[in-house]
Amino acid sequence: MRLVVGLGNPGKIYQWSKHNIGFLVVDAYATYLGLVFSKEPKFQGEIIKTDTCIFLKPKTFMNLSGNSVSLVAQFYKIEPKDILVVSDDLDLPFLKLRVREKGSAGGHNGLKSIIASLSSPEFNRLRIGIDREEEMDTKDYVLSNFSKAEKKELSGLFALTNDLIDRFVKNESIDSIMNQFNRN
What we know:
By secondary structure, the protein is an alpha/beta fold. It has helices at residues 21-33, 65-75, 109-118, 138-142, 148-169, 174-181; strands spanning 2-6, 38-40, 45-49, 53-58, 83-89, 97-100, 124-129. α1 crosses α5 and α2 packs parallel to α3.
């Protein structure tokens, strides 16, 4: 069993914020498969369960995402190496993908929470660039909405991330996925 986690903040106010790119990606994948998330209070999130994978959107707010991830991982006995977390990354250019097998939180509070809750940094990450606005406070920037022009570019991103997640769900090695998607 594998677990794909999209990080974001619950609520309509955050729906199109840059920090919610993880939610947007897993929502796009669910739409691609014709599946719908359901609320699961015992997991503090929304999930989709298939024969081979659980898809999770924690509803704990970003800084407590680890609570939800660890509840699902423990219940379904999913090892960190079988988890893929989709998150935003300020240090990557807009919509640039970076897949990693493990690593630090890199200042991302959602990843920090997951590392602490799993007691391990050994889970896979799909980081998606949201760029950085130097003149804007970081918190305000990540919580700001995508512009109309940026929203138009998301469909191209979703085509790539749907392919990437498909490969992960079908147990393709993370090395192979990194070789395919970390180019350029």
